[in-house]
Design goal:
2 helices, 5 strands, Alpha-Beta Plaits, 27% helix, alpha+beta
Length: 84
Amino acid sequence: MYLIAVFSSRNETLYFANMLRENKIFMSIINTPKEAGQACGISVKFYQQYFELAKQFLLNKPFRSFVGFFKINYINGREICVKI
């Protein structure tokens, strides 16, 4: 299972992605699911096991455009996005 970090700023999305990458956390940039609300269009996808570390990055370096973390589930082959 994986999570996504959603931002309303494309610049901050890419900055957060680089923070994860620099700390050797496997991540990818994906299109933001429409269920995540209004965002910049891209989000950072990462494994749920890194959730606590990702939260620490946000606490140490405040992002003004952070929208939230979302869990991606698949139900009947359909992607469901739920804010956590």
